[in-house]
Structures are given as structure tokens and as C-alpha cells.
Write a structure and sequence with these properties.
By secondary structure, the protein is mainly α. The protein is built from 6 helices and no strands.
């Protein structure tokens, strides 16, 4: 319940008016989650903390874990939905770009002459309407890919968690702590 509450709150952070994380800081929540995973795994395996104080500390780490998970999720989707998508028309080699700019004063619909290592650009194929449609489809593809990656990551984590939980429980039982067997 602690984890889910803080995931909900952090996923709502942009709706609350908080600014999104800058793109260069997007890996930070995942890095912090890895550090928390190491601490909690060590605690489960070795019993690093006193039972009473450790319970509060573990609850705090779980809350931070939820904040990190929600922040990563909401900010990645925010940036996918709001960042500039480059269309094929925007991707032009520097030499072609110079020729294309000089051609704008004249006949833009003319294809550039293909030569070694150059692509033919036909502006009739890339009108503003088709560019907008391409950008919309690219953004939709990025959102769908991210959704698939998120779901696959959750599946993979759950498959890894099952044997890991059994192993950590066996380590606790060796230390005389049988809470995991009683649940």
C-alpha cells in the first residue's frame, strides 16, 4: 500500500503543477531504485537493521521506491508526448540541406539529383499534412513502444522476483527468522 500510494502521487506530479524532470535527469529515478534494491536485498539477506527501527526505514525506502517509479513513468511519457519528433523530411544530409534551402526560392518540388551517398528528396511526398500525420504516427509508435517496454519490464521483474524471494526467505530461515514462511 505504501508503494502504490507514492506511485500514484508521483505519477500525478505533473497534474499537480510540478515541472517535469529534464531529459538528462530521467535516468536518476532508475539509478536510485537500483540503490534501494541493493539496500533492501542486503537487509533481507543479512538483517542489517534492528527490527523496530528497520521497519520504519524499510517503509521509508519503499515510499522512495514508489516515488522514483512514478516519476520515471510520468516523465518519460511526458517527454514522449511533448518532445519534437523529427520527420524524414527533417533528416537531410548537410550538403542536401544547403541545396534544398537554395532551392526554396525556386522550385521546391524538384527532386535533388542523387549522387554518391545522397538520398533523393521529393517534397511532393512530404507536404505539411503528410509531415503532421507522420509526426502523429511516430509519437503514437513511441508511446506504444514505451507501453510494451513497461509491461515487459514488469513481467521480467516478476519472473526474477519469484526465485529471488524464495532464496532470500531461505537465507532468513537460516538466521532463525521465519516470517516469510508464515505468510
Amino acid at each position: 500500500l505504501i508503494y502504490q500510494t507514492f506511485v500514484f502521487l508521483s505519477r500525478s506530479s505533473i497534474s499537480f503543477g510540478l515541472p517535469p524532470l529534464p531529459v538528462q535527469y530521467l535516468p536518476l529515478p532508475a539509478i536510485l531504485q537500483g540503490i534501494i534494491l541493493s539496500i533492501l536485498t542486503s537487509e533481507a539477506a543479512l538483517g542489517l537493521f534492528d527490527v523496530t527501527d528497520g521497519a520504519y526505514f524499510v517503509a521509508l525506502l519503499i515510499a522512495i521506491e514508489g516515488i522514483c517509479g512514478g516519476l520515471a513513468y510520468v516523465n518519460v511519457y511526458y517527454h514522449i508526448g511533448h518532445d519534437h519528433v523529427v520527420s524524414p523530411r527533417d533528416v537531410v544530409m548537410d550538403e542536401e540541406r544547403e541545396e534544398l534551402i537554395s532551392d526554396r526560392a525556386g522550385n521546391l518540388s524538384r527532386s535533388l539529383e542523387p549522387s554518391a551517398g545522397r538520398r533523393v528528396i521529393d517534397s511532393n511526398i512530404h507536404t505539411d499534412d503528410t509531415r503532421e500525420e507522420w509526426v502523429r504516427q511516430a509519437r503514437e509508435f513511441r508511446m506504444g513502444s514505451m507501453g510494451f517496454a513497461d509491461s515487459f519490464g514488469i513481467l521480467l521483474a516478476s519472473l526474477i522476483a519469484m526465485p529471488t524471494e524464495l532464496y532470500l526467505c531461505s537465507l532468513q530461515v537460516r538466521r532463525g527468522i521465519e516470517h516469510c514462511r508464515q505468510i
